[in-house]
Amino acid sequence: MSGQRCLGSSCGSGSKTISERLPVSFRMRSAPFVAAAEVELARTLRQRGRDEGERVAVLLRSAEESALRLGLHRLARMAAEPD
Question: Residue 28 domain-assigned?
């Protein structure tokens, strides 16, 4: 998949990359999936080593707030302590 990471348990045919799933999750109003996708996208951006610190911080903050609001404490910890 041209160097892009997949979200979910497999990257088989029909799987979408993280950057493709985030907008879909927003449109579906699926808050748990949005929060999880934000954490995964932030981690991916960090691993690439590009200067996207502000974007990463916004994604993680949003994911943590959403996860706490939804009672998803493990996901909130992942967002608060991404690595």
Answer: yes
